[in-house]
Specification:
- It is a single chain.
- With 138 residues, the chain is of the alpha+beta class.
- The protein folds into two domains: 59 residues, Roll (2,3-Dihydroxybiphenyl 1,2-Dioxygenase, domain 1), CATH 3.10.180; 68 residues, Roll (2,3-Dihydroxybiphenyl 1,2-Dioxygenase, domain 1), CATH 3.10.180.
- Helices cover 25% and strands 33% of the residues.
- The chain has four helices and nine strands.
- The mean pLDDT is 92.
């Protein structure tokens, strides 16, 4: 079995969060969702659990970070630059905010946004051949 990734995020408004991630083209798995949490299916191995603040608090004794702080940047790969644009443009249209300038290094391209709760996401395309070849020899 491949390793699966579950990203757990506290959210202020569960329905808003579900609608936001569905607008990016992801689906909600109803088997792992209720009125306190929703399972956003990103891929066969990546899932985002959006949890109401009280539900998220059940899993930690620590203070939950607010939108003014950052502890993690969630980075996901995309198969093309066009897909990076599609996802980030959809995020902005659905209520997210593009929070950093695009970065184009030729063999790598990235854009980032924050969701309505302030969680940061980066989508990155990498030229696989350039990554295998490494930096040019001068």
């Amino acid at each position: 079995m491949e390793t699966m990734v579950f990203i757990n995020l506290p959210v202020a408004d569960l329905e808003r969060s579900k609608a936001f991630y569905e607008a990016l083209g992801y689906t909600i798995n109803p088997m792992f969702s209720d009125d306190t949490a929703a399972c956003v299916v990103v891929s066969d191995t990546i899932f985002v659990m959006v949890l109401t603040l009280p539900k998220f608090a059940e899993f930690t004794d620590k203070t939950i970070a607010d939108a003014e702080t950052i502890e993690v940047i969630n980075s996901l790969s995309a198969p093309s630059k066009d897909e990076v644009h599609r996802i980030v443009d959809a995020a902005v249209a659905a209520g997210g905010t593009e929070d950093r300038p695009e970065m184009d290094l030729g063999s790598m391209y990235q854009r980032s946004f924050t969701d309505p709760d302030g969680h940061r996401w980066e989508y990155v395309w990498m030229d696989e051949q350039a990554m295998q070849d490494g930096p040019p020899v001068e």
